[in-house]
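Deviation from plan, reported transparently: pyridoxal-5'-phosphate complex.
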Amino acid sequence: MSRYSTAQLRQWDRDHVWHPFTQMQDWERDDQIVIEKGEGCWLIDTDGKRYLDGVASMWTNVHGHCRPELNQALKDQVERLEHSTLLGLASEQSIILAARLAEITPPGLDRVFYSDNGSTAMEVAVKMAYQYQAHRGRPERSRFITFRHAYHGDTLGAVSVGGIDIYHATFKPLMFETVQAPSPYCYRCELGCGDNRTCGMKCLEALERIIQEQAGHAAGLVIEPLLQGAGGMIVQPPGFLKGVRALCDRYDLLMIADEVATGFGRTGAMFACQHEDVVPDIMAVSKGIAAGYLPIAATLTTSRVYQAFLGEYSELKTFFHGHTFTGNPLACAVALKSLELFEGDNLLEELQFKISRLNERLDRFRLLSHVGDIRQCGLAAGIELVEDKESRRAYDWELKTGVRVCLEARKHGIFSRPLGNTVVIFPPLVISNDELDLLLDGLYRSIREVTGC
Ligand SMILES: *Cc1c(COP(=O)(O)O)cnc(C)c1O
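Because the crystal trials were delayed, the predicted structure below was used instead.
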């Protein structure tokens, strides 16, 4: 039991907490759920009410909440060392984790640069790519190729390479310029291909033309492999990622893969790039790395990139970037234990059954008259709701249809958070079959209740 009443906590929350991505005027008006405990895939509020964590606590949770082995790893580490800096010192846990990450990521990604969250991991990636080009005598290669609907975080560099207007347009004057390619969003293909997938991926051809126009001025290309998450769970057609890698090779661009959401099992492989045997030049990971316990991130790169930064101190080739809590031992210890659990639990193998089950269970949503598109990638899915199925006309965003579905779902004991009109399914990877059914049944009923079909 909390030492404060729910009413008191709510009052202080209203008075003092500014919530992320939240219109606080709406927030203050309602009585909000205050979470106090977690247990497996469940979140428990101050009144003891349980909610199934349908979005894995902002896409981070892997092995469930308060998993005893992870709790123990954290307790053991805190008794030995809570933090020591990587600026001027090495530390045990960060070394071991870096070696493990080099082992499990695509071959060649051997060098690990730590930071604290997905945005910083991407800032590091962008700055690293830019400085790499300068070091190899190509300072004019300064631009980045990005995709529409991309999301790479909220710091200014990460926003610059992003492509979600509703989040990013306000900050345009503060951003550096990028070159945006069409998103491989088949349901709403901007090249007019429709979603029959017989187009031979015109979006790749469009990308190639854009790269050609930028010839000699592009430092790299930034992509969320297989799945544009925050953009609306947009799933790329098979072969797209491999095609992008081939273009980066052909035009000598660094390929930056943002695996912040897709990394650590979400897509059914440890990393999304592995589905298409793609090795990026730079790869960012964060969300699932420490199983949802602590903020930590890593930007991995190849020895080719790394070695371009080596030189005499006076040459100023140093990568001048770093964060105070870089390589935090507590987070590293939990991350290492999490990787052990992946093996001990046979998690990736077990996951294949759940991915199939999710696929089967999603089928009946297709019959609903306001479900326009269903997109699944591993144990992540998006159900795009539309006002008119025939014409694919979207619901007016001000109707907050996605939000209303999620509010309705709470009545069925489910916590979810939509992306616009797309209902998101992104549970902890350890979700049981029964819990998965509960999640999907609750969302199904909520969609029917809100859209009236
Ligand atoms: C969440 C996310 C980020 C940003 O991570 P933060 O930890 O929120 O800064 C970056 N890229 C992708 C693909 C993400 O899903």
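Residues 117-119, 122, 151-153, 224, 229-230, 258, 260-261, 286-287 surround pyridoxal-5'-phosphate (CB under 6 Å). We consider this an acceptable substitute for the interim report.
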